[in-house]
Every structure is written in structure tokens, then in C-alpha cells.
Design goal:
This protein is of the alpha/beta class. The chain has ten helices and nine strands. Strands 1-2-3-4-6-9 form a six-stranded mixed sheet, sandwiched between helices. A three-stranded mixed sheet has the order 5-7-8.
Length: 286
């Protein structure tokens, strides 16, 4: 697929998705949202892609300035052409697709990020932020509400107190505050954001079983809000039972004993447990 507002580049089993609207500070449009979803769909079918890095075009002088307010002005968020029952927040549609990904996703935030430019990183797995970046969940300062499933994701990342402070004030905060609050995994100089992201992506690509990564990612995201640890125990037990009979575990043990790099053969687009997705199954019996 040809992309206009993002770049899709692969190397070393890593996909880099670059927000590519430099003249608009990589601001989001519905087209950009749709292109990122298409890129994720394409990556999911490619067994050679083991990790995804999302970054902003450096010429844009920001990771992303949020929603593009330039074309419609005060009507940017006027969705009256649909009904209230039909409308779906574009950021939320993208966030849900990011959460469904079977590939790990690293946000390489090489500049400032506000609005959806920040909240869309919350469904990603690792956030690396430039030390000079300014961040803000500024929606209440524009007369709207938070997006991209932020009300579910952010309290789980930083706790309810910090989530309320950031979202209710809409204030700008620093990368260092994001690090101290647990939102950022790493804060590094701007020119080290992508190298750090690729270092982590290569670590995943070289050493881990892709089906195991896909399942662990979903387990952590889904079971974080389970009512009781018994639910986690049930899924972990099923996963161990199924994976213990597959080729990857044999390769994982053999490569460890032989002191060599593993060569995993299973593909999460094809080789997944028959009970996946487990959250759509009837409840377990005691």
C-alpha cells in the first residue's frame, strides 16, 4: 500500500512507522489514523517483522502536535454529519487497533507531543522520550474530552492521581516528569531516541519467540483489570499447556543449551492457541 502521511520502512526485522506531516508538526488527521491502521494490518501479516517503532518526522520539529486544527478551525471536532450513536473517536479506533497488535510497539518520541500526539502512545508498550520534549493532555483547554481510550489506559500507567492532575489541568509537563510518573520508560537526548528504540527492538527481534511475545503482550494488557488473580492463573496455565507442546519451546531450550541464537519458526499471524482470543470465550468453570 502507498502511504501519504506516514512512512513505512523495514530493516533488521523492525518496522518503522514515521508520522510524516512535517509542515504541520506531524499533526494527526483521519487519513493518518487510517494509514497507521493499514500499516499495522500489513505488518501483522509479515512474519519477518518482529517489532514496530513509531516516531515522528524530525523535520516536523515535534513527535506530534496533536490533531490538525488548521483546515476546519472551530469545526474540527464537529461530527454532526453522523449521529451520536454512530460516531467513533478516531483516536480510540486507532488505540484499540494498537492494543490488538501481536507485535510489540515502541514509541520513539523524538520531540514534543500534545493531545492525540501523546495519548496515542499510551496503547504502545514502551515510550522513549527526548529530554527536551514538552508534553500535554490538553483537551480540556480546547473544550473537549480526552481521547484514544486515555480514560482507561492512563490511570493504569501512572495511577489515578497523576492521571487526574494531567487531564483536569491540561497543563504542559516535561519528559522528566513523565519518567518520574512511570509514563516514560527512558528519557534521552533527542539524537538518542531512535538509537535507543532500535536497541530495544533488536533485543526483542533477536532473542524472543514471536508467539510468546504476542501472547504475553495480550495477557498483560487484558489481565491488568481482571477481577481476581485466578483469571490470570487460568490463562497462564492454558498458555503453558499449549506452548509447552509447540516447536518454539523446543528451540528455546535447545538454543539455550547450545549457547546459540534461537531460530524461532512460529508466526503469531498463523500459529496461535485455539482458545485465543480467550476474552471472548464463556467464563471458566470452577
Amino acid at each position: 500500500m502507498d502511504f501519504e502521511q506516514i512512512k513505512y520502512e523495514t530493516a533488521d526485522r523492525i518496522l518503522t512507522i514515521t508520522l510524516n506531516r512535517p509542515d504541520n508538526m506531524n499533526a494527526f488527521t483521519r487519513q493518518m489514523v487510517n494509514e497507521i491502521i493499514a500499516a499495522l494490518d500489513q505488518a501483522e501479516k509479515d512474519p519477518d517483522i518482529r517489532a514496530i517503532v513509531v516516531t515522528g518526522s524530525p523535520a516536523g520539529r515535534a513527535f506530534s502536535a496533536g490533531s490538525d486544527l488548521s483546515s476546519k478551525g472551530g469545526d474540527t471536532f464537529n461530527y454532526s454529519k453522523t449521529t451520536i450513536e454512530e460516531h467513533r473517536d478516531g483516536g480510540g479506533v486507532l488505540a484499540l487497533r494498537l492494543l490488538e497488535s501481536k507485535k510489540p510497539i515502541i514509541a520513539a518520541m523524538n520531540g514534543s507531543a500534545v493531545g492525540i500526539g501523546l495519548t496515542i502512545t499510551f496503547p504502545m508498550d514502551i515510550r522513549i522520550i527526548a529530554d527536551n520534549a514538552k508534553l500535554g493532555i490538553v483537551f480540556v483547554r480546547r473544550g473537549i474530552v480526552i481521547d484514544a481510550c486515555c480514560s482507561w489506559l492512563l490511570p493504569r500507567l501512572v495511577g489515578m492521581g497523576k492521571a487526574l492532575e494531567w487531564c483536569l489541568s491540561g497543563r504542559i509537563f516535561t519528559a522528566q516528569e513523565a519518567l518520574e510518573s512511570g509514563l516514560a520508560n527512558y528519557v534521552v537526548p533527542p539524537d538518542q531516541v531512535l538509537p535507543k528504540a532500535y536497541e530495544l527492538a533488536r533485543e526483542i527481534a533477536a532473542n524472543t519467540a514471536p508467539v510468546s511475545v504476542a501472547m504475553v503482550r495480550q495477557m498483560l494488557l487484558r489481565l491488568n483489570s481482571a477481577d481476581h488473580p485466578m483469571e490470570a492463573h487460568r490463562i497462564e496455565s492454558k498458555m503453558f499447556y499449549w506452548l509447552g507442546q509447540q516447536a518454539d519451546v523446543k528451540e528455546g531450550i535447545a538454543s539455550f543449551k547450545e549457547k546459540r541464537a534461537p531460530q524461532y519458526s512460529m508466526d503469531p499471524s498463523r500459529d496461535i492457541p485455539p482458545f485465543y482470543p480467550w476474552w471472548k470465550e464463556p467464563p471458566f468453570k470452577e
